[in-house]
Amino acid sequence: MQRAAVQRVLLHPLAKPLVFVVWLLPFAWLFYAAAADALGANPAEALIRSLGDWTLRALVLVLLVTPLRVQLGLPALARFRRMLGVYVFFYATLHWLAYVAFDMGFVWADVVADIPKRPFILVGTAAWLLLLALAATSFNRAIRALGAARWQALHRSVYAIVGLALLHFFWMRAGKHNFTEVGVYAAIFAVLLGWRLWRRLMPQGSRVSSRI
Ligand code: HEM
């Protein structure tokens, strides 16, 4: 397909609602599977882990938008970035809520006590708090109030989020010495963030369109 045709598809009024619905499907499926008791022998663990996986997948996708937009010359892709970013926060929050509900039984004192006890919970919580800050400032009014420069600086914390999320996943899998998936995600994130650093270091790199 020609680039102009792809642009037209991306600009179609139904494109955004479609992406919105597609990214709601994992949640709908997990909700249905939980209600239908189809999550296997340990449904709570399956739910927590699945939601963690979807958080990472959404994070990959949102970081893919800018490289694809720039490299393929498809400015219309920018329309999807904010929604995908909010989906990262949405799945991270469901992941955290599932942990609070099923692992901690909504006992907040236990939730707080678990943070210093288990390093992978500590870094997961730090990643979630940073996501919360990004989600809270993702609206037009917040962007205007912060000013473009401060908003962009804040959104650079996505580098820290990626590092913390990978560390969380690595520590969680360390008990079983199962690092294959962690390695795959680390390689994908290295390419996506490496591309951004490379562009920022390039003398002719256009800063205008290089938002995180
Ligand atoms: C950006 C934020 C986060 C990301 C990307 C993330 C991602 C993940 C991933 C990928 C897994 C492993 C899934 C698998 O094995 O297939 C996981 C497991 C887990 N995460 Fe997170 N997580 C985040 C934040 C949190 C937070 C805030 C908490 C709780 C405070 C948390 C608690 C857990 C727990 C309890 C498990 C499962 C451990 C087990 O079954 O042994 N995560 N997370």
State the main characteristics.
single chain; 10 helices; 0% strand
Give your account of this protein's structure.
It is a single chain. The chain is mainly alpha-helical and 212 residues long. The protein has one domain (3-209). The protein is built from ten helices and no strands. Helix 3 (43-72) packs parallel to helix 10 (180-201). The longest helix has 30 residues, at 43-72. The radius of gyration is 19 Å and the shape is globular. The protein starts with a helix and ends in an 11-residue tail after the last helix. The model has no long low-confidence stretch (mean pLDDT 94). The structure holds protoporphyrin IX containing FE. Residues 45, 48-49, 52-53, 55-56, 92, 95-96, 99, 103, 121, 124-125, 127-128, 131, 161, 165, 168-169, 172 line the site of protoporphyrin IX containing FE (HEM).
